[in-house]
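Hello K.,

You asked for the raw outputs rather than the summary table, so here they are, unedited. I folded two proteins back to back in the same session to keep the settings identical. This is the first:
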Amino acid sequence: MKTLSLLALIASLGLTYVMAADPVDVSVDKAAEMLASGEKVTVLDVRTPEEYADGHLKDAVNVNFNGGDFEAQIAKLDPEKPYLVHCAAGGRSGKSMELFKKLKFTKIYHLVDGYNGWTDAGKPVVK
């Protein structure tokens, strides 16, 4: 009953509590479908700048997982917007999922096979 009363109080005050959503693992095909649908998803490439320069998904934003300011860079992003996060093969991006939860991002999609899976599937890249 106390929980219900607290929720009613929060609602009456117009306050909202943003809960972090669990990241959703997506395949290369599902990611390509999302991007082709016109859904406004920002692609976050967490590889090194050198890897990014060798090729990346169209319109991807590069935030280096290995950079000393990775958490600060992620904290600058709008947690209410949807993001498709990837690295080369899923390791670094997989490790970053806890940070997105900690920062209460609400729509995170993890490209589990990463950039390598994307290119192995013959999907388009920008070089």
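The second followed immediately with the same parameters:
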Amino acid sequence: MNASQAQTPPPQSSAILVVDDSSTIRRSAEIFLSQAGYSVLLADDGFEALSCIVDHEPALVFCDILMPRLDGYHTCSLIRTSERFRKLPVVLLSSRDGIFDRARGALAGASAYLTKPFAKDSLLRTVRELLPPPAF
């Protein structure tokens, strides 16, 4: 390795992290995102998500709100308190679509809110609003 390689930081991941305790939701999002050219990381709870974020530095996170152990609101809040990850886009996923739920998501620092079950078009539209297009 030469000196210029040693000083160049590794590129930020272009992966999208999907965090949901439902394997059906994780799999659906993985299929939709993969077909659109994104690499996908999966986690089934907030603790696993935080570990994955530190290890892989995803470009965007989709995070379910209602999960055991560490819910999506707290996961999002913890991401926002990190100097390293506070600008990481976090989209909260929920089957609830009330104004209170959306407001609580905004207070936690969510970049967007997507209602489940989501359609492929709405999922990809949300990604396009928050990220540049993938490089093929």
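The beta strands are 16-19, 40-43, 60-64, 90-94, 112-115.

Happy to rerun anything if the numbers look odd on your end.

Regards,
P.
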